[in-house]
């Protein structure tokens, strides 16, 4: 049978998998309706040919459910399961997946909205890899600062807030603030950053995200919970969505440590609101709360203290870490919380030069890094100096220290014969050789340490880091300490403790095994399929699939 523009079945968007070779053989030459049992391709070229469905076809037939989409013959073959032409240019399809014959897999267009910071973008890139391997089309919608990393990973990129946030605004902010050594020196870069953020919020209020979603037309949206301002627009679009958690939510504290989220007293709330208003008026703080309140009113979603995005569990939450590290099973919110594995980005990482020849195999390696945003803390420069002193006191160890923008590495490199100081380094390859890592307890770094089985000395700086450090200490995979007033003696005592007690290495090795065990696509696939089916049933309850 020749494939024409009108001979494809209406079920081009779905696959039905059969695990019986006989049924596959009987369907081989019985027309398009019999071809949907073929398994989806897994090679890179074959996956690329499959990314054609109702959201990637030619002409106005894309929006006509009563007519098949006009697509290329190769795409029709891929979607209906027809064997590709016997030509070396086209890959052969693998054996069918071992699935029930009645099970259909819905292929969808997924939009991911992450923050452009490294700790948020890395797990989202790994998540996108898994979704693409499952046959979905993945589109990243993000600020320009993330474009290079996203495109280098091979994903489609749609910029947002182009007129508000410059491509290099993160680099500029980190460099200028890192070089400031006084409060007055911080005012200028701080005001510039606030102006950019306020312009972004104004664009959000003017409907830029709404228009972007309408232009992309995704079937499922995944957005970073740290950018809660996207929530109202995503909710109002009527498209099913998942809220991504690239770190452990602070609302887990009550379940993990018996520590409820503290509510400030009324007097303190009034005082905080007055201080916030003053800082906003002086241009020293962005209009975060005003923007969120206005967005909630625009979409009729309640108030900041009573809306679907308040707390955890009001909407479907996607945790980019295994349950073994932190979970709240048995609570009311647990029904909407889904864990999908560690999401360690191992493939799409920027190549970084490093003097590997300076490392010695016969010495334990101590890796030090306060993350890509360590410049925001005044405790980082003293910690860098303390590490230099520790290196001098332990000549039989070797140290690699990442300074970030908090110091010039040239002023620290070589201060001790066993010390290497660089602005940044290839973290995963170094962790494979490390004995201990001194870290700010950023969650992306903590997951990578666990993945490679490296115990930690956690020195949390801000935001979620103290909470993550407490979980590290609770599991016995490292120790934690406040960075303030932690000089060389205190830091050396912590390193001696972790290196001298084998229980830390044993605990992190056991946790690493659980991370590797959880690194599988099935939970993510089941969740996405369930959400797509539920949305399809709600949108067209009487529609029958032929």
From TrEMBL:
Residue span of region Disordered: 1-70
Pfam family, one: UDPGT
GO biological process: antibiotic biosynthetic process
Source domain of life: Bacteria
InterPro entries, sorted: Glycosyltransferase_28 (IPR050426), UDP_glucos_trans (IPR002213)
Compositionally biased residues, Low complexity: 39-54
GO molecular function: UDP-glycosyltransferase activity
Segments of skewed composition (Polar residues): 15-25
Signal peptide segment: none
TM helices/strands, residue ranges: none
Protein's recorded name: Glycosyltransferase
Species: Corallococcus carmarthensis
């Amino acid at each position: 049978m020749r494939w024409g523009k009108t001979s494809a079945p209406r079920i081009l968007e779905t696959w039905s998998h059969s695990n019986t070779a006989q049924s596959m053989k009987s369907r081989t030459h019985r027309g398009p309706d019999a071809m949907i049992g073929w398994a989806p391709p897994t090679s890179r070229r074959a996956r690329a040919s499959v990314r054609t469905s109702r959201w990637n076809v030619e002409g106005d037939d894309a929006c006509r459910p009563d007519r098949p989409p006009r697509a290329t013959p190769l795409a029709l073959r891929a979607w209906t399961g027809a064997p590709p032409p016997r030509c070396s240019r086209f890959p052969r399809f693998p054996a069918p997946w071992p699935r029930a014959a009645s099970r259909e897999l819905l292929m969808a267009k997924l939009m991911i909205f992450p923050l452009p910071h490294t700790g948020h973008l890395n797990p989202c890139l790994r998540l996108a890899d898994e979704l693409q391997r499952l046959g979905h089309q993945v589109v990243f919608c993000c600020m320009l600062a993330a474009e290079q990393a996203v495109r280098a990973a091979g994903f489609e990129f749609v910029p947002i807030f182009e007129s508000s946030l410059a491509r290099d605004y993160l680099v500029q902010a980190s460099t200028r603030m890192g070089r400031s050594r006084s409060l007055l020196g911080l005012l200028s870069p701080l005001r510039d950053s606030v102006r950019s953020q306020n312009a972004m919020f104004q664009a959000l209020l003017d409907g830029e995200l709404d228009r972007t979603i309408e232009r992309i037309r995704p079937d499922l949206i995944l957005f970073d919970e740290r950018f809660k301002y996207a929530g109202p627009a995503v909710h109002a679009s009527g498209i099913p969505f998942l809220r991504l958690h690239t770190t452990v939510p602070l609302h887990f504290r009550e379940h993990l440590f018996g520590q409820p989220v503290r509510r400030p007293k009324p007097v303190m709330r009034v005082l905080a609101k007055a201080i916030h208003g003053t800082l906003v008026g002086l241009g020293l703080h962005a209009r975060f709360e005003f923007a969120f309140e206005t967005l909630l009113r625009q979409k009729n979603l309640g108030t900041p203290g009573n809306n679907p995005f308040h707390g955890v569990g009001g909407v479907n939450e996607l945790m980019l870490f295994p349950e073994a590290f932190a979970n709240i099973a048995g609570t009311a919110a647990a029904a909407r919380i889904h864990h999908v594995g560690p999401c360690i980005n191992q493939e799409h990482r920027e190549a970084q030069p490093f003097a590997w020849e300076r490392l010695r195999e016969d010495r334990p390696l101590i890796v030090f890094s306060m993350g890509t945003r360590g410049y925001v803390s005044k405790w980082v420069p003293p910690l860098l100096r303390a590490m230099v002193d520790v290196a001098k006191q332990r000549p039989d160890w070797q140290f690699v220290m990442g300074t970030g923008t908090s110091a010039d590495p040239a002023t620290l490199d070589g201060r001790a014969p066993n010390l290497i100081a660089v602005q940044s380094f290839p973290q995963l390859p170094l962790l494979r050789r490390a004995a201990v890592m001194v870290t700010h307890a950023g969650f992306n770094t903590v997951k990578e340490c666990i993945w490679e089985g490296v115990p930690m000395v956690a020195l949390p700086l801000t935001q979620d880091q103290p909470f993550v450090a407490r979980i590290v200490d609770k599991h016995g995979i490292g120790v934690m300490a406040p960075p303030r007033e932690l000089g060389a003696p205190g830091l050396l005592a912590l390193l001696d403790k972790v290196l001298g007690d084998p229980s830390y290495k044993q605990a992190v090795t056991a946790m690493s095994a659980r991370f590797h065990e959880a690194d599988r696509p099935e939970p993510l696939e089941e969740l996405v399929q369930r959400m797509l089916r539920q949305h399809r049933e709600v949108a067209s309850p009487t529609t029958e699939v032929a």
